[in-house]
Amino acid sequence: MRNIRFGIIGYGFMGQTHAETIAKLEYAELAAVCDIDAAKRPAEQAVEFFDNANEFFAKGRFDTVIIAVPNHLHLEMVEKAAKSGKDIICEKPAAMNAEELQEMITLTQQAGVLFTVHHQRRLDQDFQTAKRVYEERAVGEVYVIKSSLYGFNGNMHDWHIYPHYGGGMLYDWGVHLIDQLLFMVPHKIQTVNARLRNVINANVDDYFNIQLTFENGLIAEIELGTYFLNDSERWFERHWFIGGNEGSCVIDGFQPEARLVRTSELLTNTPSKSTITHAGPTRSFGNPPPGRILTESVAIEQTAHSMFFDNFVKAKNKQAELLVKPAEMLRLMELVDLIRKSSEDAQSYPFDK
Ligand SMILES: NC(=O)c1ccc[n+]([C@@H]2O[C@H](COP(=O)([O-])OP(=O)(O)OC[C@H]3O[C@@H](n4cnc5c(N)ncnc54)[C@H](O)[C@@H]3O)[C@@H](O)[C@H]2O)c1
Known about the structure:
Layout: E1 4-9, H1 13-23, E2 28-34, E3 48-50, H2 53-59, E4 64-67, H3 74-83, E5 87-90, H4 98-111, E6 115-117, H5 125-135, E7 142-150, H6 169-184, E8 189-197, E9 207-214, E10 219-225, E11 238-244, E12 247-252, E13 257-263, E14 276-277, E15 280-281, E16 293-297, H7 307-316, H8 326-345, E17 348-350
Parallel strand pairs: 1-2, 1-4, 2-3, 4-5, 5-6, 7-10
Antiparallel strand pairs: 7-11, 8-9, 8-17, 9-10, 11-12, 12-13, 13-16, 14-15
Helix pairs in contact: 3-4, 4-8, 6-8
The site of nicotinamide-adenine-dinucleotide has 24 residues, from helix 1.
C-alpha cells in the first residue's frame, strides 16, 4: 500500500492531536504543518513549517491535508487544497452550513481529490456497541433512542464562544451525536423538533435538545448540556438508552459499561390487584417486585479512533469506500441547518431525507 504524506493546517488542539495519531501509524508520516501562529512550529526538524496557507499548499511536500483550523475557515482551506490537488480530511463540522458544504463537494469532485470529514466518533466504543444492539435487534423492535452528554462547568473557550467562527455546542459536539444516529438508523427522518439555549454562555448555544422522528416511527432524542448538574454517579459522561419491545439497553461512559434490561414477565392483560405506591394508586408504575427486573451484560465493541485513518488509507489505495462519505455529510449539514431553524422558529419541521 502507498504511504500517506500528511500536511496539517491549523496546529492547535486538534492539529496536534492528529500529529500524535499519525506518529503511531505505520503507513503515514507528517511532512508539513501550517499555522499563522509561528509559536506552533513543531519541534521535529523533518517537518516543514509554513505560516501562510498559500505557500503551504503550493510548496508543501504532502499528498493529503488535514484541515484543523476554526470552522469558519474550512471552506477557504478546502478550496485551496482541492486546487492544489491534495486529498482532504476536514475537521468537523465540515462547513458552517449545507450551502458551503455543497460548494466544497463540487470543488473536490471537479478537482478529482478524495474528500472526507473527521467523524471519528463513529468509532467510539459506546456508539459501536449501541449500533450493534440496534442492528441485532437485541431489544426487539426499537421505538426510542436517547443519546445524551452532560457537563458540569459550561466549559467553552477561545473561538468556540463566538458565532462568527462557528462556535457553540451544536457545531462542536452536536454534529458528532447527530452523525452517530444517522449512521446507525437506516431510515429517512420525517420530522425535526429542536431547541438550542445559551444557558451560561452569552453568545453561543451550550444546551440543546433535538427530537427526530424516523419514517418507521422510531423517536430519537439527543440532549447535550454543558451545565447540566446532577449528583448521580457517572452523570458527567455519555449515555445511551435504547428502548425496544423486548427490553432496553443502557450504555454509560466513554469507557463504556453496557447492559440489557428485561422483565421476567409481562403483566399485560393479567388480572390486576389494587396497588398503592408512593406514586399513589397505580398499577403501571412504582417499584417492581424483587426478581422482576433482569439484567444481562453486553460485550463492548473494541474499536479505536485510529481506524478512521486505517479506512482512509484503504480508500486512498482504492481498496475500500470512505467510512465518512460527502453525501452523508451533506444530509447531516442540511439537518443541522433545519435544527437551527426549528429552534429559532420554535416549531417542528418536516425533513423527509
Ligand atoms: N473531531 C474532533 O473530535 C474534534 C475535536 C476538537 C476540535 N475539532 C475541530 O478541529 C478544528 C480546530 O479546532 P481546535 O479546537 O483544534 O482549535 P484551536 O484553536 O486549538 O486550533 C486552531 C489552530 O488554527 C490556527 N489558525 C487559525 N487561522 C489559521 C489560518 N488562516 N491558517 C493557518 N492556521 C490558522 C490557529 O492559530 C490555531 O493554532 C475545528 O474545526 C474543530 O471543530 C474536532
